[in-house]
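User: My advisor asked me to double-check a structure prediction for ABC transporter ATP-binding protein before group meeting. I don't want to rely on an old file, so could you generate it fresh from this sequence?
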Amino acid sequence: MSQAAISVSSLSKSFGGIRAIDDVSLSVAPGERRVLIGPNGAGKTTLFHCITGTLQATTGTVSMFGTDVTRLGEARRTELGMGRTFQISNVFTDLTVIDNVILALLGKDRRKWVAYRPVDAYPELREQAAESLEMVGLPHRANDSVARLSYGERRQLELALAMKTGPRVLFLDEPCAGLSPSERQHFARMIAALPRHLTLLMIEHDMDVALALADRVTVLHRGKVIIEGDPDTVQSDSEVREVYFGHA
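Assistant: Sure, here is a fresh prediction for ABC transporter ATP-binding protein from the sequence you gave:
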């Protein structure tokens, strides 16, 4: 078997007396599309934070392609190939769309330490940024201020930023939250079109989107994994129906 892209073993996270993540273990294969679902407060985002380094786990380990990253900071994990988006839009609203992408490119480039050269001094970065905007359907917005983008367009920009860190594993935290039905379908098509060599972990509340994109689904409830399997298995499980709808 190939080495897991992400391996989580006996991971727990406590906040005082509250155990937000409780002994979670999971393994995600290279190139897999894994979706995490569960009711509000199940611990999905906290689990993401612990895997990506935003939070340090209380106990347990996290490995990426066989490398233990449990005690590494978020920046170091990004250097090793983790990329992510967040629930709340996280872009520079006072800059143009393309300048946001250029800054993401510079973030992993040694030239980021050269403070006396303007961004326009790197035409190849602008070209790469333009390619990214083409990928997410925003080439016509390149020179607009981010403040003028719709919420859905900001989500598209965030995907371009995450991809430009060169991730091997991409974490998407509720990418379709707050989008209209048509925007959700558009964004889901963009996610489905991502290259299959990229491993994807996604939190998503829209069950239709989640189950359509997933190779495997992990269901969290009260910080614990209650079931894991292919979309059909999860959808037909009585415990999942109980958690979501209050009946089997």
